[in-house]
Amino acid sequence: MGNVLFAFALTMFAGLSTGIGSLLAFFTKKSNTKFLAISLGFSAGVMIYVSMIEIFAKAQHSLVDTLGQGKGAWVTVIAFFGGMLLIGVIDKLVPSSENPHELHSVEELNEAHPEAGHHAEQIERRKEAQKNKKLLRMGMFTALAIAIHNFPEGLATFIAALHEPQIAIPIAAAIAVHNIPEGVAVSVPIYYATGSKKKAFMYSFLSGLAEPVGALAGYLILMPFMSETLMGVVFAMVAGIMVFISLDELLPSAREYGEHHLSIYGLVGGMVVMAVSLLLFM
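^ thats the sequence. predicted structure below, dont judge the formating
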């Protein structure tokens, strides 16, 4: 029983470090769009690097071990692009008027509200509302992707802690370091969209909760059925989802809310942080 409690506590620590990231995101004023551009670029860099370098590689390693070199490699690639297809289909199912990726012209706003054509302030307010809605959706999608990612991570950490506690501690520390910038990825767009630090922290906190929930679900339900093959497929799909979100949502929004170079500097910075964290906990 002691091992179970230790494993769960370790997983809880790793998952809830997303809350640290959301708190770090609050050391700025809401009007600081340069910070927003850098943060979104940074978040994209984190998600792209960890997906392509770590998660995809782990998925391929698991699938090659169980299915063989050729078949395992093919299943990894198919699952990776399957994750992209899944999030792309979800995006397309959202009505265009509500879709955060569909940009709308001033003419469209005027057609919906003719009186706005004569009032610049009303137009600006509607444009600001559209931007906020886009950011809110982006934060929600990012929280969902991170939650999906954290679920199997929590299971993996929990299993490692049960069997090899000394190995699980550096694994949990590495995941915790990874989850801090992931917390930024969730909280920044939600905070800028709503102006509420409480909501931003709550959603970031909840996305991290998926890690201990994954551990608990694994212990109670999934352990008898979970296989190395299924875990590999899930990881590959999550990698695809995170790369799609980064390219389709985070980077375009970073460029929209700040200078192009700031978003690229943030992107590179995010990759550097992830690369160093991976090297520190090899």
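Confidence is low (pLDDT under 50) at residues 95-117.
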